[in-house]
Give the backbone structure.
Amino acid sequence: MARNQVVIGGELIALDGLRYTPAGVARVELTIRHSSQQPEANGSRQVQCEIDALAFAETAHKVAGFAIGQTVKVKGFLAQRSMRSRQLVLHINDIILE
């Protein structure tokens, strides 16, 4: 089985309200800003990025109670945004405040 696991921390910089899919599943879209130093090629690299993410079901209800500016740690996996888009989005399986 191929691996597709992501663990990353950062600041919530965008947080949409709780919505529901046509099937009635709770859904929240958010963006996380990550900044860190990472080892690379015997040196150190400054990493900064913004990651679009989605939370569904109980995780969406949990995220809906968070606020922009809070620091979070996220565990999840990467998937295409849609069948017609090759853009990646992080699907959240677990999220905690740090």
In short: The chain has a mean pLDDT of 96. The CA atoms of residues 30 and 79 lie 15 Å apart. The first strand starts at residue 6 and ends at 15. The radius of gyration is 14 Å.
